[in-house]
Amino acid sequence: MDFSTFVQVAWNQALYFLKELNQYNLLQRLLVIGIYLLLAKLADLFIDKLLKRLAASTPFATDDKIISILHKPIQGSIILLGLMHALTLPPDLPSPWSTVLPNLIKTLTLILWWGAFIKEIYHLNEINLAEWLEKRNIGKDIFYLVRNISLVLVIFAGILWGLLIWDVNLTPLFASAGIAGITVALAAKDTMANFFGGISVFADRAYKVGDYIILDATERGEVMEVGIRSTKIRTRDDVMITIPNAIMANSKIVNESAPSPGSGSGSMWELPMTAICGWLKRPFWKWPGPTPHWRKNRNRGCGCVPLVSHRSISSSWSGFGTRP
Fold it and tell me: Which stretches are transmembrane (predicted)?
């Protein structure tokens, strides 16, 4: 086949293809898509010229980030809506395009907004919402817990929605997930108990980091960290104890740092106790026991409670005062 024959065959195929497309009102569909492209550009200008300027005039930075994250999804959704409108014009497309193309556009729209929500949740932090969290007495641990759970729920919901768009039968999936969930729950019973115990600890807010607590009248000390699985406490002997949250949730907790009516902020012991602790930490003394600390007991007026136990002092007193 020479070149002229090849060109003639290609031209004939192109004319046939255009003729086939013409029966599906190609020009009308393109006109609809062009109108939606114009609407998307107008929405882009509206967000850039008006909404972003209004957000910049407010003292909050959160609205600027929200508009920045939702800008592209709104513009993309208008374009995808135009494509969907063009596909619904008569006559219907032949199979399988009449099903594949609309489902593909729905999936792209889902991915667009799904990614925007995930990005919005992921970029939330306690610094931007510090004032809001402080007014509602919400700690950063609870904030991060709610944020991570919301992130998992959004990802799970997006996957299920995508499967529903393509008419995937979810019954076998849910059945398999139920069996797998039972297996995991039995195998990780203690881990799940600690997880739900951590949720109950966060919800009750019986203590927070920095509080001094007594656990079942046995262990006592300062709360150093409150995690999802466990709580870390530093005792008066300067020993770090890690207690599972399942135990914390089912134990009697006395919070000695809880504010009480009439407890003053000053103390007659504050200056001398600070001086004594500073003297014990001086480098020319060899103090064999734990590093000395002290704190004000809010529930006993102006009294003070040392964070070094009498046992550690008595056992270490023989070496006290010797020079290194």
Answer: 26-47, 68-88, 100-122, 142-164
Nearby residues of 164 by Cβ (< 8 Å), 6 or more positions away: 170
Domains, the chain, ranges and CATH? 13-168 (no CATH), 170-197+206-258 (2.30.30.60), 271-319 (no CATH)
What are 38's two structure tokens? 């114009």
Q: Of 10-14, 148-152, 172-176, 268-272, where does mean pLDDT reach its minimum?
A: 268-272
Q: How much is the average pLDDT of 287-304?
A: 50
> φ and ψ at 189, to 5 degrees?
-60, -45
Alpha helices (H) along the chain:
3-22, 26-46, 52-56, 62-87, 97-122, 130-135, 140-165, 171-187, 189-204, 245-249, 270-280, 310-316
Q: Tell me the two tokens of residue 157.
A: 């919901």
Predicted TM-score (pTM) of the model is 0.59
Segment 295-319 mean pLDDT = 47
For residue 129, CA distances in Å to 134, 136, 147, 213 come to 8, 11, 12, 29
> Look-up: residue for tokens 């004319």?
15
How far, in Å, CA of 27 to CA of 25, rounded? Answer: 6
